[in-house]
Amino acid sequence: MKIGFIGLGIMGESMCENIVKKHDDTVYCNDHKDSQIKKLESMGCVGCYSNLEIAEKSDVIITMIPTGEHVKQAYREMLPALKAGKICIDMSTIEPWVSVEVSREVKKTGAQFADCPVVRSKADAIKGTLGVLAGCEEKLFPVIEPILYYMGCKVIYMGENGKGLSAKICHNTLVAEIQNGVNETLILAEKLGISIDNFAEAVAAGGAQNAYMAVQREKLKNEDWTTAFSMENMYKDVSICSKIAEDENFYMPGMKAAKDALSKGVENGWAKDDFRKTYLIVKS
Q1: 196-205 vs 163-191: helix axis angle to the nearest 10?
Q2: Is 191 annotated in the active site?
Q3: Catalytic: which of 39, 86, 163, 168?
Q4: Between 31 and which of 21, 36, 138, 252 could a Cys-Cys bridge form, CB atoms 3.0 to 4.6 Å apart?
């Protein structure tokens, strides 16, 4: 089974590298940056220079690209080569309704389609310990599950097409809300003369304990904004959640507060910095 991987960005390059290390057949790759293709070639991948070429040569096509428009464009380019027997797995984080639209077009060719976005960070992409949330026909899941485990340590079937992405958007919005809550209470504690370390210990001792505080305390203390997950990507995901909530006529005040902080961070020119930098928005 030959695998093609499109999108060698912050997460994608490590995900593809893990496939190359663990898969016993050819792995092809493509990216809009030739330098990224060459980087993966040095690890044993076979470089391709069009999405159509990937689709022609691969039995399984994996995409990990930034936005819904990018995903639609990539699959438009690949449609002529798609047919029965081919499987498409989109691991991008995009609008669920866009993914469902793409899945319908792919299925018209006889090929199969799954949305399988990932959770966790770049460090987990490197280690192959991502969480993967799968949305596809139930009978397809056991076929693609072993491939997903090349990249993740936890693979969960969420339901039909679009459900993987719906779960991912809700997940990331919860992360943003937790982060915003940590920012607010941490800064208030500092104003009351309590150090970051002491407050983090207090949180760890009680019902408010959370992984975000445990992992981020040193980086917040040192104002280290090195990117693990960018401000612009978190803002994109929470904005998708905002649209979903609006469509469902469901008011989410916590989501709105987190989205406002992210929006201000992007406006400040921090789009490429880690989303934890919204700490400075709340502090200001």
Answers
A1: 120
A2: no
A3: 168
A4: 36
